[in-house]
Please model this.
Amino acid sequence: MSRSILPATLATLVALAACSKEKAAAVDTTPAVPAEAAAPAAAVQIVSPAENDSVGPDVTVVLTKENVTIEKASGAKADGVGHYHLFLDTAAVEDGVVIPPNSKNVVHIGTGDSTYTFKGLTPGAHTLIAVIGYGDHSAMPERRDTVNFVVKAK
Ligand SMILES: [Cu+2]
Model:
């Protein structure tokens, strides 16, 4: 008699164990571990002038950024660290390319400041592109910003 009961009891226990295991899995609401988060994208934004602003002839550009540290140009490339560059009425370099020296159309704000004033711009339409470059002045692969503005005729 006990011989027939024992296997039945074991079977029941195994079934119960399996059942409770499934149940535990079913109610497990622990969120899945997210895949390793990518580093947040660096970005630059032109705060001023605003798109289609009518300004000038002196135009102060105000910049801000996300997920990047702005500091004085060090000459060295370090991840996540750079300074602002402005391209006025000229195409900006591709990511990774060294930004040309300062000129009428290209500005390195190598001091680590977030503002720059263009003096005496000619009346008419202008296009400004802001790019962050590493300490070695190569363009960081970040999100750039472009603004179109108009310098008022005198
Ligand atoms: Cu630079």
About this structure: The two ends are 112 Å apart (CA to CA). Residues 43-151 form a domain with the Immunoglobulin-like fold (CATH 2.60.40.10). DSSP finds one helix and nine strands in the chain. The chain has two domains: 1-30, 43-151.
